[in-house]
Amino acid sequence: MVHWTAEEKQLITSVWSKINVEECGAEALARLLIVYPWTQRFFASFGNLSSPTAILGNPKVRAHGKKVLTSFGEAIKNLDNIKATYAKLSELHCEKLHVDPENFRLLGDILIIVLASHFARDFTPACQFAWQKLVSVVAHALARKYH
């Protein structure tokens, strides 16, 4: 189990309360697909992903980005039980979707960039540390069924 300090919890929830899930989720997923184009193979049903412009304007990318970041909110609500929170999603991504677990880490790193760009003033080094810890724990929980 991961130990969270009161300060880490406060920093995470403070930024989370300001996030536009639809906007930041869409941006994070789009950036993942653009920066790491090999991740696009998991989204073949999304239609046109042929260019950054196509990806950024793709409604399925936007919708799934929102879904992913909404799910991330479950980790924030359950900081002391993230593994159990993501058990079913880990199983789905491992056994049915066969997503490379490295992609969870990549998306977490992209999310950090998105949050830093949207909340520069609030995203202090201490805040970044707390969020980096969180995305790492979430990525590990999502990869759990792979081990």
Would you spell out the secondary-structure blueprint of this structure?
Blueprint: H1 6-16, H2 21-35, H3 52-56, H4 59-77, H5 82-85, H6 87-96, H7 102-118, H8 125-142
Helix pairs in contact: 1-8, 2-4, 2-7, 7-8
In short:
With 147 residues, this protein is mostly helical. Helices cover 67% and strands 0% of the residues.
Task: Report the count of strand segments.
Answer: 0
- Beta fraction of the residues? under 5%
Radius of gyration: 15 Å
Share of residues in helices: 55-70%
Structural class: mainly alpha
Overall average pLDDT: 88
Uncertain runs are none
Q: Shape from CA axes?
A: globular
Which H/E pattern describes the elements?
A: HHHHHHHH
What is the makeup of the main sheet?
A: none
Tally of DSSP helical segments: 8
Distance between the termini: 17 Å
Explain this structure:
The model has no long low-confidence stretch (mean pLDDT 88). This protein is globular. The chain starts with 5 loop residues before the first helix and ends in a 5-residue tail after the last helix. By secondary structure, the chain is mostly helical. It is built from eight helices and no strands. The protein has helices at residues 6-16, 21-35, 52-56, 59-77, 82-85, 87-96, 102-118, 125-142.
